Amino acid sequence: PGSADVRPEMMPLLKEITGTLKLERFANYQIEIQGHTDDTPVKTPQYPSNWDLSAARALSTLKALNEQGIATNRMKIAALADNAPRVPNRSDTGKAYPENQAINRRVEIHIYPR
Prior knowledge:
Strand content: 15-25%
Structural class: alpha+beta
Number of strands: 3
Radius of gyration: 15 Å
Order of helices and strands: HEHEHE
């Protein structure tokens, strides 16, 4: 929570993704990196809102992919904050589901033909 750092355990997966995206058959594909948060409001000097945090998560991932050799002109980022949860953050009574909130704090990578 509250972090935009790429977790070290995700680096092997990012390396695998970049290896695939470097193949000639994917040369004309666009990569969209979406940053997401849970519904807990963030208000820190570094991340004044969930929008800022989700944008930072997407940007951190873009930088990691670029360091692995993916050109920045193939990538774009999108910040979705808490607007596209995969699972409910809270019950109908407002009780937080910590496990679900953890799932909703994520980055998604979408790959499209140009």
